[in-house]
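Order emerges. One example.
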Amino acid sequence: MALVDTAAGPEAYHLLVGYLPCGTAEPEALVGRTTLPGRGLVDVVDAPLSPIAMAACLGALAKTPPPRAVWFEDPPGPGQPTRVFSGEQSNTNVLIGDAVLFKLLRKLPGGPSQEAELLRTLGGTGLAPRLIGVLASPEAGCDLGLFCERIADAEDGWDWATAACAAERPVDAELEELGRVLRRLHRALAEAYGVSSLDPAEIAHRLAARLDLAAAQFEELRPLQDRLLRAACEGLGTAPLAAQRLHGDFHLGQTLLSPRGWTVIDFEGEPLKTPAERAAPDAVWRDVAGFLRSLDYARSRHADPSGRAAQSWREAARAAFLRGYQGGVGQPPAILRAYEIDKAVYELQYELRNRPDWAALPREALEAAVATAAAGS
């Protein structure tokens, strides 16, 4: 485990390493060399990238499970091939054989994994992958990784949607079905965790606090801050809202489309939030807003992202998803705009910190929200 000092305080990161006889490490996994008592000079490897190290790890967990491994199904056999999924990921995903995915948590959650908890809750619904096992650290008091069902013949929702937008291919039927899947997911979570009441004034307070924090860190938000808050709060009303447990970071990249339909994945919540914030009940429109914002991001792969064709594709996709989620009845509530603004503020912070080239997308959304509110729409 490595502790990293940040502006928000120390953060713990998980590094799974292996030690192999000197000169035997796979080149792509080799980190360096060190001397170990009784073993002499050894190769140090990034374990997920080393099939040799992963075979040893899985063999130990399957043969004599230590207190840190909890299995809900039979553990994967150590003789199966392993490979790391490429692409931009905050964690490391290792495919074991053809049927099991090992998600190695890199930034430690500071306690039990919210994803493991929710996958256990949703077991048997078919809405999410089955949870096979959890790797924990009793010493650190937190989960280190989880073993899940791998969805066969699945396409990542982001890849699927961006390709469709680039080709200007309609996606109405698929996104209407995904809207229904999210509604069933929310129903399952409400039955498991219950439903509480949320005061709109509390939502406004949270929005204001997050805007204050964001504007304090990023100067470009300050001229928009008051207008964004007004635009967000206009639709809140005064009646209490139903609040419940959510996915917490629902977007295209958290979905898989396979022959069996849509599967929802990655229940960790938003990376910049604390575990308590991720688990807190909220209105279901937070998940809906997160997904609608990701449809806006999908325009980035079109040849002319700001052109009429890309904009029309996004609007049609939004409408289809909302039809599915709302059962084809009524217009989305005004409160949805508040959550879309809040999400775009979060996105702008994230992009400015991690992917500055992407910051234009949430920036445009925030400017549009202010303009729409000013026009009285």
